[in-house]
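Figure 3 (text version): structure tokens given as input.
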């Protein structure tokens, strides 16, 4: 374990504030949902798809409109709680670091 100095922590906070995490998260959520949706669709014909916008948003307890805004990289005022982020990482079987850290 490496102990950080106060100036190092301030630098980390500034880097995170200036990063592109919201856009990356939005792009990754959309890509993952569509990949899972299409894979499920090819395997299960004529069955309600659990990866549809409606089903995912109801699992999270938010409206369809709110979830579609989470997937939109151009929408600036989107909020997601840590609990919902954990749920999405479990649904899509990826780590939270992968969701926010890099384009999948």
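Below: residues designed for each position.
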């Amino acid at each position: 374990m490496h102990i950080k100095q106060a100036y190092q922590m301030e630098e980390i906070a500034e880097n995170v504030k200036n990063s592109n995490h919201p856009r990356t998260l939005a792009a990754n959520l959309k890509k993952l949902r569509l990949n899972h949706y299409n894979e499920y669709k090819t395997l299960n014909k004529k069955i309600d798809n659990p990866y549809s916008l409606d089903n995912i948003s109801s699992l999270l307890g938010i409206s369809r409109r709110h979830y579609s805004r989470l997937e939109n990289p151009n929408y600036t005022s989107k909020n997601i709680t840590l609990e919902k982020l954990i749920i999405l990482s479990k649904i899509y079987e990826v780590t939270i670091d992968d969701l926010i850290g890099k384009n999948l």
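The chain has one domain: 20-101.
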